[in-house]
Amino acid sequence: MTEDIVVIPGDGIGQEVIPAAVSVLETLDVDLSFTEAEAGDHVAAAGGDPLPAETHELAANADATLFGAAGESAADVILPLRAAVDSFVNVRPARTYPGIEAVRPETDIVFLRENTEGVYAGHEDRLSEDVSTLTRVVTESASRRLAEYACEYVTDRDLDGFTVAHKANVMRETDGRFRDAVFDVAEANGVETDEVLMDALAMHLALRPEEYDVVVTPNLAGDVLSDLAAGLVGGLGLLPSANLGPDRGLFEPVHGTAPDIAGQGIANPSATVLSAAMMLEHLGYDSAGQRVRDAVETVLEEGPRTPDLGGEASTEDVTAALVDALE
Amino acid sequence: MTEDIVVIPGDGIGQEVIPAAVSVLETLDVDLSFTEAEAGDHVAAAGGDPLPAETHELAANADATLFGAAGESAADVILPLRAAVDSFVNVRPARTYPGIEAVRPETDIVFLRENTEGVYAGHEDRLSEDVSTLTRVVTESASRRLAEYACEYVTDRDLDGFTVAHKANVMRETDGRFRDAVFDVAEANGVETDEVLMDALAMHLALRPEEYDVVVTPNLAGDVLSDLAAGLVGGLGLLPSANLGPDRGLFEPVHGTAPDIAGQGIANPSATVLSAAMMLEHLGYDSAGQRVRDAVETVLEEGPRTPDLGGEASTEDVTAALVDALE
Ligand SMILES: CC(C)[C@H](C(=O)O)[C@@H](O)C(=O)O
Ligand SMILES: CC(C)[C@H](C(=O)O)[C@@H](O)C(=O)O
């Protein structure tokens, strides 16, 4: 069966790392067909919608979508794309790799971030000259759906359980509901849980990241805490992510457009290639996914390396090395 | 003039560090009169309100209040106490001290956290079986008031300016308003500003904390980011904070009740003593405040040290050393 993959390079280094990932995917013995679609600042600058309806439509119907990055228009592109694939969870693993400098090399955490609501549901109003409001939404159903996934995630991987991070001491009704729903589903599935306040977790991650494995969070908490974890493992350059829905997924590096190096052909493609590995696994090609991961690890360890990792190689050099490692 | 100081030890190590700070304050040549008030879990356990009306009243009328910590009831105690002193800003400096182990010793940041609204304004509803909401509130007036303070803060200290952290790419109306109001006030005061998204800042703090000096944030962002900074400088044990209103203030260590060591007489009083120094400065006793800071630094460097800092001293030993250093 051919898998229909939509690729959306977007802006900046997205234009460099997406072709790199496609080259890597093309060396595999997996039947993938690629359709390229447009999105981002450059589309808006040309008078279009940063997320053209056609791109939205393609992502909503593809087997999977691989996304690069978008600039100023990021929120207008990535949030509707996540919705297009009906993604209820954003999976964000943060770990270090041998030989990569990191503030906290012990970090090895996967965030399972709620991906549809919280402040992102975003009903905002200007009530008066002085007062603006935002209605934060938490539903039982989205919380339970995330929790079901989290249970499956830890059970499939023989992990001990997960930690729920929240701020239910202040957001008693909304985060309280999130926490209770997640605990309830975990209990029904015989999965162990503990909990931590999101502010305390930010401190603990700096001090003792090794104490956390899988962290289940509301949307904004997951946004901030996973970026923090990225900092602890050395930056965004190596971090992949998966936005999963019931039928399809959207896979993207956690990094942005990197305007400072865009266009120079020196972007590190690792995060996007690792996102492609998550895509393969989501599509059921576990061993191909594992081979891609192994190739990334080998090249990270042995080189060549792009300048962000202290090397002098180009995106093309690294891509060629990845392809070599896979052949 | 006698300054009326209300002291609220609260729960756990609050009962140990507040008396320590009072002993230190009593050695100074400043006319302070202390009134002790009750709050916390132990009051609730005895059938009372965790924040008795009498305590609220005392704090609302004192020249300043020094608070220890509260346990499970923390939110029910500290949030109304902040409101009692009409506190619009929570000042949270995070820095390391010579000889103290830290993940990121370069960190030297002051957070100026909005202290009245955001999700803490907390209008929550259960709209249906499935849906709960929280109305996040941002006002022009609170944002401007915080910004006025931030401008004064950097101008008084001859600092270059400040950074505004927010999530206005998603919370466009509310955080957009916060950002615009703060920028507007800064511009009118000739204060330089830059901005960063709160998720990006969490990452930057792990990677390059030395790039930030003064960070102005909405309420929850300040909560999480200042705890993160606490982690980067070695934990909460040394971090003071000030909740300031137009006429009075509430001063508290950032740490909690530390149930694991409470009652053993080994709590580190430094964070509370540093909070007392902030209190002195707020009351206008700048040189007394500076002397207290110097004493804390001397004792941190030369010992004795409590177990959290690798020593074997008691709270009493450290307090005696502080008193010695001041005499
Ligand atoms: C661009 C922005 C809307 C997005 C988010 O907040 O989710 C980004 O920070 C991320 O985490 O992918
Ligand atoms: C106890 C809690 C309500 C409080 C807060 O969220 O403000 C605490 O985390 C703090 O930062 O002082």
Number of helices of chain A: 11
CATH superfamily of the largest domain in chain A: Isopropylmalate Dehydrogenase
**Element-level helix/strand string of chain A:** EHEHHEHEEEEHEHEHEHEEHHH
**Count the strands of chain A?**
12
Instruction: Provide the domain count of chain A.
Output: 2
The CATH C-level class name of the largest domain in chain A: Alpha Beta
Outline the biggest β-sheet of chain A. 10 strands, mixed
Query: Helical content of chain A, roughly?
Result: 40-55%
Arithmetic mean of pLDDT of chain A: 96
Distance between the termini of chain A: 22 Å
Oligomer: homodimer
The most extensive contact between chains is:
A-B, 53 and 53 residues
Q: Return residue spans of chain A where pLDDT drops below 50 for at least 5 consecutive residues.
A: none
Which ligands, by name, code or SMILES, are bound? 3-isopropylmalic acid
Q: DSSP strand (E) fraction of chain A?
A: 15-25%
Shape of chain A: globular
EC number (chains A, B): 1.1.1.85
InterPro entries (chains A, B): IsoPropMal-DH-like_dom
GO molecular function, one term (chains A, B): 3-isopropylmalate dehydrogenase activity
Pfam families (chains A, B): Iso_dh
